[in-house]
Amino acid sequence: MPGAEKAAGALRTIGELAQEIGRPQHILRYWETRFPQLRPLTRAGNRRYYRPEDVALVRRIHDLLSNQGYTIRGVQKLLAAEKGNKAARAAAGTAAPASPSKTDTQALKAIRDSLSKALDEDS
Q1: If you average pLDDT over every residue of the chain, what do you get?
Q2: How many CB atoms are closer than 10 A to CB 10?
Q3: Which of 37, 112, 114, 118 is most buried, judged by most C-beta within 10 A?
């Protein structure tokens, strides 16, 4: 089914994710060697399946490298620092504040607009 969108919680193949972010598959495999936080599920034949949290991490890494000018090393340091901050907050008993990404915000606005349109049509 070309063009069919997967559910938000569905697993993504490496090909789907590579196409989504506009990078070749070998770049995603390389990132797996550089970012220990990125660990997709692997199945028979070493096929990779990315969970929603992996997809979010790949999108973030891609944004940091492509749009914000970070180097691989810079992204590694940033992610390691964030992991340390989360661990410190967990030890202190406070939760990390939720900060929606640009993609999340756009998705929520699209949902809001479609619901508003449906309500207008229903009236």
Answers
A1: 85
A2: 13
A3: 37
